[in-house]
Design goal:
- It is a single chain.
- The protein has a domain at 33-79.
- Helices cover 52% and strands 0% of the residues.
- It has two helices and no strands.
- The chain is flat.
Length: 80
Amino acid sequence: MAFPSIPKPEGQEQQARAEVQPRQPRRRSVLSETTARTTIGMMRSMASHKPIRLFHLMAAAEMEQLLEEVLKYRKEKNNG
């Protein structure tokens, strides 16, 4: 069963279509330690104000553990 097409508002039929540009490959951004620590702090702050605080405390603890692993890996990579 086909659905009818949605009519366009007046004036849009005559507009020229823009050329679609090819998508540029995304560069992987590096997570800064400050951003990670701020996010962990927000999770801990939410844990002290929301009824589901155990989830947020556990999430903050796991995030902190992952951050330490990333920092350790970066340090090894830069020294090696």
